[in-house]
Amino acid sequence: MTDVLIGGQTGPQSLGLGSTIGARLRQGALADLIVTELHGKYYETNVRGNLFWATMTAGVIFPAPAAVANNPITLANPAGSGKNLILVSFDMVITTIPGTPLTGLYGLYVNNSPAAAAVTGTAIAIQQGLIGGAAASVAKAFSTATIPAAPNLLLPFAQKVTGQVAAAVGIDGLPGYHVDFDGRVILAPGTSITPQQTVADTTNATVLCAFAWEEAPAT
Fold first, then answer.
1. Domain that holds residue 79
2. Residue 44 phi/psi, 5° resolution?
3. I want to staple 187 with a disulfide (CB 3.0 to 4.6 A). Which of 10, 85, 104, 194 is the partner?
4. pTM confidence score
5. Within a domain: 22
6. What pLDDT is recorded for position 56?
7. Is residue 66 pLDDT above 90, yes or no?
8. Mean pLDDT throughout 54-67?
9. Mean pLDDT on 36-61
10. What percent of the chain lies above the pLDDT cut of 90?
11. Is residue 6 helix, strand or coil?
12. Dihedral of CA 110/111/113/114: which sign?
């Protein structure tokens, strides 16, 4: 096998616009390759019409643990879609505090059975990240969603503690939570994801949620 050497240069270079002759890859003193970002992290997938959002517009009450009905938001990848949903982020804001909060966790739960029944509920409009773009998403998003079976806990993202929330809300408002996935979670066709809690409150919280994801061909 013949080795191919790619030349580099340590330190900055001064090149005119459109220069190709003499241009070298920039390296550090440890032979590392130096790169800089031209655009934001998700620019490329977004400008190509592959980034989407599903955002609730009205608060929904959090159901009891392991609920199959009335889930606040569920993002589903329909069976046979031909695409994977590569999760980018999840956001949740509590709009109404529980009357009697009990110690427990908020988490993201998944249905990982592609043969399960389809998710149903009140449809949430899906928006393209490229505002004004014409690309259509294969995903389905629902509020007050009914899922085919009690889902499995994938990722706890927040804790609630008895007595932690006072009747008077401070100037910083009610809690908000943000999760970056960075490629760690992909919904294959026939699967779904929804936020739930591990311990039910006497009066459950009302929440607003949003998912962002990229779509790419399923392999």
1. 43-217
2. -60, -50
3. 85
4. 0.85
5. no
6. 95
7. no
8. 90
9. 92
10. 55
11. coil
12. negative
